[in-house]
Description:
Shape of chain A: globular
Shape of chain B: globular
Order of helices and strands of chain A: EEEEEEEEEE
Helix content of chain A: under 10%
Radius of gyration of chain A: 14 Å
Largest sheet of chain B: 5 strands, mixed
Distance between the termini of chain A: 28 Å
Order of helices and strands of chain B: EEEEEEEEE
Number of helices of chain B: 0
Structural class of chain B: mainly beta
Strand content of chain B: over 45%
Number of strands of chain B: 9
Distance between the termini of chain B: 39 Å
Helix content of chain B: under 10%
Largest interface: A-B, 27 and 24 residues
Number of helices of chain A: 0
Number of strands of chain A: 10
Oligomer: heterodimer
Strand content of chain A: over 45%
Strand order of the largest sheet of chain B: 1-9-8-3-4
Amino acid sequence: GAGVSQSPSNKVTEKGKDVELRCDPISGHTALYWYRQRLGQGLEFLIYFQGNSAPDKSGLPSDRFSAERTGESVSTLTIQRTQQEDSAVYLCAILRRGGFANTGELFFGEGSRLTVL
Amino acid sequence: DAKTTQPNSMESNEEEPVHLPCNHSTISGTDYIHWYRQLPSQGPEYVIHGLTSNVNNRMASLAIAEDRKSSTLILHRATLRDAAVYYCILRDRAGANNLFFGTGTRLTVIP
């Protein structure tokens, strides 16, 4: 929604496999976030990118999780050796250029639903 | 980081006003109060935000207590489309990266 496209929308994988989730935001955003939402629960912050600064990885639950962003465009979240507890919806959000960090709106994608069997 | 507390669920009749409360007793002077909502099978969407004064926009109104330790999101006439999970979050002046959404309030609108 509102300029954030995520793919795949649904992914079913077997335990132990690696998965890559993609976030394709519109140009002109200043910050990009990844969140995880388990069934029936709130959003868990995972990682945050802004400009050329080092990303804030404080929310990544383990070293199996990593994320990259190419310039100010596509970001990928990679989960290695997936576990059943990784099953969740992974949401990407952007802060548009001109939005202040403390007041600007976050625009979320519709998420990628990951199911680990 | 300052956190918020919301009721897990609320119900409202269609076309009646809804008041969704949020407690944030540890709010700092530089924290902005934001509300988002999440419709079924969608990502959250921005609703409204404020600092000290009450705010109105086309979607809702935000009433902020004088001591800023609580706030209320007001939907003036609930519609079925307003059924969603509503999140109250705080964002500080430095623009904290780790925005804590919590579990929100699930609003059910009864036709």
